[in-house]
Each structure stands twice: as C-alpha cells, then as structure tokens.
C-alpha cells in the first residue's frame, strides 16, 4: 500500500537485460556494484533478483555495514567492500566471520591489520592506485613489499584490482592507467584480477582482467551521461498532483516569492521536495503530465513543489519526474551533475518493483 503520492518504479526486468547486455560484450564473470542501496534502487530487491545469475561472481559494496546487511539476506556469493573498512580488530573479525572480502588500500593499512595477529585469514583484494589518487598501493615497490611480507595464515589474497579515473573520458589518460595496472600486476596470478567498471567494459577492449565490476549500466544509465539508448533506464520517479488552483496575474508562488504569475494561471502542487532528494536546483526544469511538459515554478520546498500547468491537469494526475519521457541523463545535464548523484540522493520514496 502506498502511503504517499510520490513513488519510484524500478523495473527489474530491465535491470537484468542491462546486465546481460554488458556481459554479452565483456564475456567474463561480473561483480555487481550495489553500494549506496544499489544506487538508490533498493539493494535487497536488486540483490535477491540477480544473485542466481550464473556469471555473477560477487557483489561489491562501499561499507562493512552494507556488506553485513547483504549477508543477512543469506546470499552466498562473495562480497567485496570497495572502500577502507575501519582498521579495528572487531571490525576485521566481523568481516572474517561473515566471509566478507576487504580492499587492502595501503601499506599502512596492511601493517595495522597484520598487527592484530588474526588467527583466521581475512580475504583481501589488493587495491592499486593507477591514477585516481584515492586509495590503493601507489607503485610496484609497495606492492612487492606487501606481497613479500604477507602471511597466508592471516591474509588470503583473493584478488588485485584498480579503478580508473577516466574510463568514461580522456582516452590517453585511460591508456596510461591501464598500462600502469598491467605493469604493476605483470606475471601475477590471483583468482580475481579486475580493473573495469561499466565504462571500462563498455567503451574499451581490455582483455587481461578476469572479472568486471558493473555499476551504472546495470541501472540503465550511460557512464558518460550521454543518452545513447544503449541501456534501459531502470528507475522512474513519479508524483501525483494533490492540488490544482487558479491564481490571478501577479500572484506569487513559493518561499521567497520568486515566481510571479504573468497572467491568470493554473498551479499544481506535488508532494515531492528536497528532503526526497529532489534538489532546489530543479526549479525551472520541466516535468511530464499526460503528454505535455510543464515547468516547476517557485522554489522547491522540503516536501513539496509547484508546477505551472493548464486547466487540463487535475488532482490525482500522474507527474513523471524522470522516466520514459524525461531521461536521467538529460536531467543530469540540466542540473550540471551526473545521473549517479541524482539516483543516490533519492530517499524517503517508496519503490514499486516491476518484475
Ligand atoms: C571501485 C569501484 N568499482 C566500480 C564502480 C562502479 O562504477 P560504475 O557505476 O561506473 O560502473 C565504482 C563506482 O563508484 C567504484 O568505486
């Protein structure tokens, strides 16, 4: 039962089609990136819907908390925490107990965990920094020091990986990062060697790695923000009109009275605001109602916003915020951001799952 007039629809069939499309091209096992509540799509439903896909080898999340929540779903596949888990004994032991793999993000990080003298090995994927400048071992010397020192009684090196800063952009920089990754891992053999995100798998032809991390394309969005129609957008966001009124010319709308009616106008109110992740910058953008586009006028409030409509719009009419008529890629361009940010910000919105 829906308890409010704003809701998202997540089409799980589309999600699966997108994964299949990427897998058909990449043709190697995949790790599904479902951090940040599956980029706002609901990690439980997403994980439970796809975990039996044969070529889906692992899941990736950002935090230990996300990893533990995923394990609670009784999912047996491997789970990698992409970010640095706090280097405290209790947290590392929790990871071991729940068979969660950690990213080994630096030499300091490694030596701290080593100092715990764990009696069971923790599974790790060694992270390499090939140009992002975020986390990871920085060069061959550091990697050699780590691998020479590491004790299999305390660490099970399950994989080695990197994340490119420009897989969706600057080609020359991408090549430099890929070359660094190849240099650093030359002659090594680990169960999992992974360097590709969606853009890496879809826009490049890297052949050496044996696992791909699929994030944004699974959700039907283009890594570079171009609306090329390659993927099927999985999430749509809707609201229903809760009030329509006619206001006389010169009337004001919203906080700060930033909008003035230029003539007698119809104004609709929908229950969607910045507390739902629908940021104030949306003022002036358009929504879609019954075949027409209408402008959001006045400031977006915390829980509501107003739309300049015409007399055809009635209480209860469905308002598409993004979906089949307004793509997330175009919305991201208008908001000067990326689709990732828009979907991750959405909260407090009930989700209807379409299978
Ligand atoms: C380390 C790492 N791998 C993979 C991904 C997935 O990237 P994408 O959503 O562009 O496929 C991310 C996303 O932020 C990431 O941080």
Q: Ligands bound here?
A: pyridoxal-5'-phosphate
Number of separate strands: 19
Uncertain runs are none
**Which shape, going by the Cα principal axes?**
elongated
Proportion of strand residues: 25-35%
- N→C terminal distance: 18 Å
Rg is: 24 Å
Helix amount: 25-40%
For the record, the count of structural domains works out to 2
Structural class: alpha/beta
CATH architecture of the largest domain: Alpha-Beta Barrel
CATH topology assignment of the largest domain: TIM Barrel
Mean pLDDT: 97
Characterization of the model:
This protein is an alpha/beta fold and 355 residues long. It has two domains: 12-214, TIM Barrel; 235-354, Lyase, Ornithine Decarboxylase, Chain A, domain 1 (Beta Barrel). The chain is 28% helix and 26% strand. Strands 11-14-17-16-15-18-10-1-19 form a nine-stranded mixed beta sheet. The protein has an eight-stranded parallel beta sheet with strand order 8-7-6-5-4-3-2-9. A hairpin with a 5-residue loop joins strand 12 and strand 13. The longest helix is centred in the N-terminal third of the chain and has 15 residues, at 12-26. It is elongated and about 80 Å long. 39% of the residues are buried. Bound molecules: pyridoxal-5'-phosphate. Pyridoxal-5'-phosphate (PLP) binds next to helix 9 and strand 9.
């Amino acid at each position: 039962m829906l308890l409010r007039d704003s809701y998202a629809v997540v089409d799980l069939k589309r999600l699966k089609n997108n994964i299949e499309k990427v897998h058909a091209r990449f043709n190697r096992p995949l790790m599904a990136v479902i951090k940040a509540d599956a980029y706002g799509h609901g990690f439980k439903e997403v994980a439970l819907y796809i975990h039996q896909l044969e070529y889906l080898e692992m899941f990736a999340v950002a935090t230990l908390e996300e990893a533990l929540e995923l394990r609670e779903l009784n999912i047996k596949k491997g789970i990698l925490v992409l970010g640095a888990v706090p280097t405290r004994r209790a947290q590392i032991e929790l990871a071991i107990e729940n068979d969660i793999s950690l990213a080994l993000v630096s030499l300091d990080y490694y030596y701290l965990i080593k100092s715990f003298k764990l009696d069971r090995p923790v599974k790790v994927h060694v992270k390499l920094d090939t140009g992002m400048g975020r986390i990871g071992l920085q060069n061959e010397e550091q990697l050699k020091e780590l691998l020479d020192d590491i004790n299999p009684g305390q660490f099970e090196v399950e994989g080695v990986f990197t994340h490119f800063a420009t897989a969706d952009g600057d080609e020359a920089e991408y090549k430099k990062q890929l070359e660094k990754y190849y240099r650093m891992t030359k002659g090594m053999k680990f169960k999992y060697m992974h360097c590709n995100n969606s853009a890496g798998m879809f826009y490049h032809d890297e052949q050496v790695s044996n696992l791909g991390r699929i994030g944004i394309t699974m959700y039907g969005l283009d890594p570079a923000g171009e609306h090329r129609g390659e993927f099927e957008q999985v999430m749509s966001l809707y609201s229903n009109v809760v009030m329509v009124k006619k206001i006389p010319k010169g009337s004001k709308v919203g906080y700060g009275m930033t909008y003035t009616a230029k003539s007698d106008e119809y104004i609709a109110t929908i229950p969607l605001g910045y507390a739902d992740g629908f940021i104030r910058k949306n003022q002036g953008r358009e929504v879609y109602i019954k075949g027409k586009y209408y402008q959001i006028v006045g400031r977006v409030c915390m829980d509501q916003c107003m739309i300049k409509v015409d007399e055809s719009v009635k209480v209860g009419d469905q308002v598409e915020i993004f979906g089949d008529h307004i793509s997330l890629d175009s919305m991201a361009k208008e908001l000067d951001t990326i689709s990732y940010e828009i979907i991750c910000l959405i909260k407090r919105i009930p989700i209807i799952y379409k299978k």
